[in-house]
Amino acid sequence: MPDSAGDPLDMLVGHHQRPAEWARDPVRGRVLDDVPAEPGRDGADAVVLLLALHRAADPVELLARVRRVLRPGGTLVVVTPSVVRRTPGELLWGGALRPVRRGPWRHRSALDRAGWLLAAAGFAVLTDERRAYALPLPGAGAARSALDALPAAGLWPELGPAGRARVGEALARRAGPGRVLPVPLRRLVARR
Predict the structure, then answer these.
(1) For residue 70, what is the domain's CATH number?
(2) What is the pLDDT of residues 83-134, one digit of tens each?
(3) Which one of 88, 99, 135, 192 has the fewest CB atoms closer than 10 angstroms to its CB?
(4) Whole domain around residue 99: which residue ranges?
(5) Is residue 131 one of the residues assigned to a domain?
(6) In what order do the strands lie in the sheet with 44-50?
(7) What is the sign of the dihedral through the CA atoms of 12, 18, 19 and 22?
(8) Does some domain include residue 1?
(9) Chain segment 137-156, per-residue pLDDT in tens
């Protein structure tokens, strides 16, 4: 794969499977406006919060609004970054990604304690799965693109200059043919 293969998030989630504005205009500040305050006649069967819970202005209020719009027995799916190292690939990156794991997440509890937040909001958590996706880093250009694209999409926090420089150097050093960056995600499925 050439170094200029395109947007690294397209490689991660599938080419053209996400709208371009997702990375350019993150959910910040608009999440609560996207969930109606009151349910429709019968309520929604399902709601998906894709990389939104940890970026909401108030995750507790967001979950309360989601609960109001879901019908009894409705399903909530939450996908959020996972900041706990679980796979050998993540362990190999160890200290290089420390600024990401310990970074300035808007609501750290929505990452570390997402299951607890759902239970406290009255949802029954059915599954809590973690999986590290492999983001190809074929060269330094892909590493630079990932450093911009991952925070924009909400997969990483916005890093300060020192953290950004440290992670950028680590990505550039480890980039090359056949190299991948683990991007750990967490999927919780809950029922109202």
Answers:
(1) 3.40.50
(2) 776 666 666 776 777 888 787 888 888 888 899 999 999 999 999 988 888 8
(3) 88
(4) 8-191
(5) yes
(6) 44-50, 70-81, 180-191, 124-136
(7) negative
(8) no
(9) 999 888 888 888 888 888 88
